[in-house]
Amino acid sequence: MDILRIATAGSVDDGKSTLIGRLLYETKSITRDKIEALEAASKRKGLDFLDLSLLTDGLIAEREQGITIDVANIYFSTPKRKYIIADTPGHFEYTRNMVTGASNTKVSMILVDARNGVLEQTFRHFFISSMLRIPKVIVCVNKMDLVGYSEERFNEIKDAVQALADKVSFEGQEITFIPMSSLYGQNLSTQSTEMPWFTGAPLLEELEETNFDEIKKPARFPVQFVVRPKTEEFHDYRGYAGKISSGSFSVGDEITVLPTGQNSKIATIEKFGTQLEKAGAKESVVITLETDVDVSRGNMLVKSTSTLEPLKEITARICWMDSKPLISGKTYILQHGINDSKAKVIALNNKIDVVNQDTIVDAVSELKLNEIGEIVLKTAKPIFADKYEYNPANGAFILVDDQTNSTVGVGFVL
Amino acid sequence: MVDNLKNPSSEVSVPKFGFFPRELEDEAIYIMREVVAQFEKPVLLFSGGKDSITLVRLAQKAFYPGKIPFPLLHVDTGHNFPETVEFRDWLAKETGAELIVRYVQDSINQGKVKEESGKYASRNALQTVTLLDAIEEFKFDACIGGARRDEEKARAKERIFSVRDDFGQWDAKRQRPELFDMLNGRIAIGENVRVFPISNWTELDVWNYIKEEEMAIPSIYYSHKRQVIQRDGMLWADSEFLNKDADEIPFEETVRFRTVGDMTCTAAVASEAIELDDIIGEILSAEISERGARIDDKRSEAAMEKRKQQGYF
Predict the structure, then answer these.
(1) Which NCBIfam families does the annotation name (chain B) (predicted)?
(2) Residue to test with chain A: of B180, B209, B306, B309, most A Cβ within 10 A
(3) According to CATH, what is the number of the domain B22-206+303-309?
(4) CATH class given for the domain over A311-413
(5) What confidence tens digit (pLDDT) does each residue in B263-300 have?
(6) What is the Cα–Cα distance from A8 to A139, expressed in whole angstroms?
């Protein structure tokens, strides 16, 4: 059984929480006691219908403000796969949450209120989905019940969104449009009864049928931990534990250790004592090598046929996530996967004005919370990253403020 | 009420047995290894429940053929089911892991906490103090716990590495963004991190894992005969710790526990489930949620978030 991770984004009041609640309801992921609690809460709020949005609107502070303020993770499954929804808010101030929620996901669901059409937010969602290179975007044109299930209105919105998408979409990104009403369950898990003119698949079917050709990515294995039991049974055992970030490794593969450049061959690939012939991306394994080479945490094993050049100066796109702005000349801790290094911002090339649809502002002195820009970093030690565009799993990093220990930004290697 | 939910949903069938997504295990093992690499004194918080038993299994796998490189800490409220305590001792012996036990009774004797009174008295809230004291005593900087995001709304937003201050407090606004699989465990002296490797697992995932891994679990998860009382529409296990009203007369019922907490705050469910497949079948029928059997959560809608701010998980 596989897992499909989905990010949702929308503006305030476009019915996102209702959509997710409805999806849970229709996949029978809500237990009876929760439905009873929902009935009681809906009545308390003076509503004459079941408010499914109450299922996902979590924290106390949020309930007071009546908006979602953080990333919430929601789970449901079908016989085919497990789904994880990262529900991210559509607020202007919360780009940081949207980027956080969308990292890791393969599908981005963008909500548009059929009455309001395309908003400033819609472009932001598209921009972020594309920046993160999310391969599939589903545009949910919601609240169709409030526009009389009009095909004309749907097409208008579709054209407007497509025009936005054209500006930022990348080759191979798939964009699908679905007209729906979350409140009445139109085009959620079953074909809409109100919109016979729509011939596409309802949302759940679209998700169930989504599969990605895992394009051959280079093999990357960051070493997390050296396993040396030093027991009698495993006296000379020396294994390298880690999670393969991309590509695959097989027993007998010639590998290179970065940064030392030493070469060796894979002797075994193990999972709790089970010997594997081959292991692929996202698998946590222990690799042993045929020869004694010097490997420690933070090193990376790569296939010798697809090795990496060390980077000491990194040009990257940054999304800033801290209330203290990014300043040129300041030193941060750069964490790339499980490896880290001090890194100094030596140039702030530009800032992208997402609101005004992707215009570039040169000569900026700082990047504020939720702003996106291009910077150059000089690192204290070499970093072995791919370009994000080429291999996302090995092309992103975070910046940490060494005074507060906070994660203050995320970078995508250009 | 207007029935806005009448759209047929019967065509969507529930998941079948035996489908554990292995990606969840890989992710949890990765997190365990990061804990050992990034922290000096990690500890696994062991409750005797299925989630913490799952954590022990994952820790075994993460460091094999080495041993589990951190101790297990159990905060014993004194109101635990005897079956749980027995299982705890057996598991520690079986895995060779170091076991540390600290007692809520000691915190009561030291005058740090006061026993609750009344018919809803429980030591559930009291254990926070014992836990924080143990963290201070051993200078633990990372506490691995078995919380899952599907349990409760406040947990849906929890991070995998959740930073707590000196007082164990959780602040939703101070949580760090977690991007891709990069975990930032940098903390100041006095702070610690709660780590949740099975954040992305659901209750069903845990049971499927237990089944596929053929793991042992305490006997009270399976159907058995027990003296219970009926209160607030739930079945409460009768024990010397439960304060009963005169009209609450214990009777025998065939029950099992869906979650394992204290005897005073865990409700039993009537059940004939004697095998794992029966248990999984019950979960799939979705009659009652897991935390629905937690009496303490029912005290108020925002109960969990409030306890979390105070240093509970």
Answers:
(1) CysD, PRK05253.1, PRK12563.1
(2) B180
(3) 3.40.50.620
(4) mainly beta
(5) 888 888 888 999 988 888 887 776 656 655 555 544 44
(6) 10
